[in-house]
Amino acid sequence: MAQDTNTEKPLTPLALKDVGVALIKHCGLHEGLYDVAIEFQFAIGRVGPSRESIYPGAMLGVSRIGLAKAEQKGPHTVDAREVNPAKSVPKKAEPKKAVPTKVAPKKPVATKKT
Questions:
Q1: Model pTM?
Q2: What residues make up the domain containing 28?
Q3: pLDDT 10s digit of each residue in the chain, 114 long?
Q4: Which of 2, 51, 70, 111 sits at a 20 to 30 Å CA gap from 88?
Q5: Torsion over CA of 17, 18, 23 and 25, rounded to 10 degrees?
Q6: How many domains does the chain have?
């Protein structure tokens, strides 16, 4: 059996609200209330550590994590406006309008009559 050579400490687990903040920033959301949504998969079957110790059982797995729009603020709700405010874009200066200049009228060109 291969020996585990990974000696790094595991990362600190995130609180549910912190996961919501990370997802809001990842998705580029700048307004609205959101809750973390977790999708589970369930399975039933025979479960046990050995053939002699099998019992009816159930298994649970997390299949997806995302955001769900919230109608009102709850204990884990994240306000996108607070955690990921839209960057204000400075207003561009209006282009200068062309100032009409006086153009001297053209002098008539004298033509020779022959």
A1: 0.62
A2: 16-83
A3: 556 666 777 788 899 999 999 999 999 999 999 999 999 999 999 999 998 999 999 999 999 999 999 999 999 999 999 999 998 766 666 666 666 666 666 666 666 665
A4: 70
A5: 120
A6: 1
